[in-house]
Amino acid sequence: MSVTASKPLLVALILAGAATTLGGCATKKYVREQIAPVSERVATLETRLQETDGTAKQALAEAQAAAGQSQQNGQRIDQLTGRVDSAEQRLTAAEQRPARRPRH
Description:
The chain has helices at 3-23, 28-96. By secondary structure, it is mainly α. The mean pLDDT is 86.
């Protein structure tokens, strides 16, 4: 490389370094102003998340209650099925017996 080719590069590096150094750090006020909208959005989302979590927990409790009721209903149906089968068997047996004559 020649000296003339490296001069623009050197000038560019010096200017970049000066811009970075002279820019300084952000003030607390600036940082607060930049973070405030994000903090508000986060707070809003946290509130919505808590509401959604409550709704989900309520739905789970209702689903579990419905499952328990369904199980009880299934047991009742099983009991009634047994009773209906027994009644059908007695009816079938009664139909197959010869008719009795009334007593006088």
